[in-house]
Design goal:
Strand order of the largest sheet: 8-7-9-6-12-13-14-15-16-17
Number of helices: 15
Number of strands: 23
Shape: globular
Oligomer: single chain
Radius of gyration: 22 Å
Strand content: 15-25%
Helix content: 25-40%
Largest sheet: 10 strands, mixed
Distance between the termini: 54 Å
Length: 469
């Protein structure tokens, strides 16, 4: 059987990781089918445009397809009829990360991984963009859509130095119901960005130390001829590296916070209130100024890490700076979904208090005193468990009004009490139509000025965008 005859069926194909994996498989000549629950943009559009056949639901009819592998997403659990049938019939199973490692990364000479709680998608996109603009023809798999790259996953070609590079978003979430290791342990990157580290994924990790242990497992398999790029002041990451590190580390930090006793290899200096202008330093030497469309100092750190990696493989910081100035962003990262003279509506993936605070802070710096109405979707497993209860007050201070949206049947903590602590207009809603009506009324309460509506969710609120304005 030739490779072009091989068939994989992906269970959970609608997720950003598994959907992008399907693109790589198809590009490499595999016959790809998949199953999932209801799909929503951007991945529904990505799969449709790639002509990949997707069936809705996890019915037993998938067994009759008899693929060479059932590639299992981590949405599949024991007790699901399809899972029990696969096990009882001894069908060939493989996790998505393992399939990626065996069938894609095994063909690459240099894998660049981006790990951390926040900023993985943006940093991966920035890296892939800098390499692409420098003629390196990188492959990549990114958990989001950057329109300029033309795809969210690609196998790639050969770089001018003869190497084959692959940029990969490295998620710490577990691999499958039968493999509880973090996904990134499968990837064995040569160069690794460790963006930051906070407690998240409370459904599978007991505490921050449990996540730190998984990051330690990643560090243990990094080559001593590779590179780690990490922020100088992230306490959790410093604990991870202190457990054992055999790979050179290049550090990044704000330039104006550095002292002789605490100096980083790479520095960034914000030159504008909203973060759209900033300077790049290497070992104290100014290399140039970036003027771009992204907001916030967190994105400056993301981009500086990308420049550091690019420099390590031979791309001048000047080339990196020039590429960054042409970068137009990633979908669902302060993406403008609607704009007129009355209101601008933004879609953002933020679902952790730190990410919410940084996103709101960047938008506030951009719009000044204009009203910001924030919608926070209580959707992720960590948010539903109430792990971050008590942290939303500080995260949402930059908003003028706040609406929480939650599925009341799946949230186990008192969101209303959290909202009351904010002492801001808004409310807690369990019905999307009622949320839309309340949000429209709130926008009408600011009749004489441009409003900014920021929707933060890691799920599908497409109905809201279609009806809010």
């Amino acid at each position: 059987m030739t490779k072009k005859d091989k068939h994989i069926h992906i269970l959970g194909i609608g997720g950003t990781f598994m959907g992008n994996l399907s693109l790589l498989a198809k590009e490499r000549g595999y016959h790809v089918t998949g199953s999932d629950g209801p799909l929503y943009p951007p991945m529904s559009d990505v799969l449709h445009n790639a002509n990949i056949a997707v069936s809705q639901g996890y019915g037993l009819e998938a067994l009759a397809l008899n693929p060479d592998y059932f590639v299992i997403g981590n949405a599949l659990t024991r007790g699901m009829p399809i899972v029990e049938a696969l096990l009882n019939q001894r069908k060939p199973l493989i996790s998505g990360p393992q399939w990626l490692s065996d069938h894609i990364l095994a063909h690459k000479t240099r894998v660049i991984g981006v790990a951390g709680t926040h900023g993985k998608t943006t940093t991966s996109s920035l890296l892939a963009w800098i390499l692409s603009e420098s003629g390196y023809q990188p492959g990549f798999l990114i958990g989001g859509v950057s329109p300029q790259l033309g795809a969210s996953a690609r196998f790639g070609g050969t770089a001018p130095d003869g190497e084959t590079y692959f940029v990969l978003e490295c998620d710490e979430y577990d691999s499958a119901f039968f493999d509880k290791r973090s996904k990134f342990v499968h990837y064995r990157p040569h160069i690794t960005v460790l963006n930051n580290l906070e407690f998240d994924h409370a459904d599978i990790f007991a505490d921050l130390s449990a996540i730190e242990q998984q990051f330690h497992h990643l560090v243990r398999i990094l080559p001593n001829q590779g590179l780690i790029v990490a922020p100088k002041k992230d306490v959790a990451l410093q604990r991870v590296l202190a457990k054992g590190c055999w790979t050179p580390v290049s550090t990044v930090a704000q330039q104006d916070e550095q002292t002789q006793a605490n100096f980083s290899d790479w520095g960034y200096k914000n030159m504008s209130s909203d973060g759209h202008t900033w300077q790049v330093y290497h070992k104290g030497e100014l290399w140039g100024t970036v003027e771009w469309g992204l907001l916030g100092e967190h994105n400056q750190q993301n981009a500086l890490a990308a420049i550091a990696v690019a420099s390590h493989i031979g791309i001048s910081p000047l080339q990196g700076i020039a590429a960054l100035q042409r970068f137009q962003g990633v979908k669902r990262r302060l993406e403008v979904r609607h704009s007129n003279t009355n209101v601008t509506v933004y879609d953002d993936f933020a679902h952790h208090p730190t990410a919410i605070k940084k996103t709101l802070g960047g938008l506030r710096a951009k719009v000044g005193n204009a009203p910001i109405i924030a919608i926070v979707d209580i959707r992720s497993n960590t948010m539903k468990k109430g792990t971050h209860q008590g942290h939303f007050n500080a995260a949402l201070q930059a908003a003028d009004a706040v609406f929480f949206y939650q599925d009341k049947t799946t949230v186990v903590w008192d969101v209303n009490a959290e909202f009351q602590q904010l002492n801001k207009p808004g409310g807690v809603y369990h019905n999307i139509a009622e949320l839309i009506q309340a949000t429209q009324q709130m926008m009408h309460s600011y009749p004489e000025t441009q409003k900014h509506l920021l929707v933060m969710s890691n799920g599908n609120l497409e109905f809201l965008y279609q009806n809010i304005c």
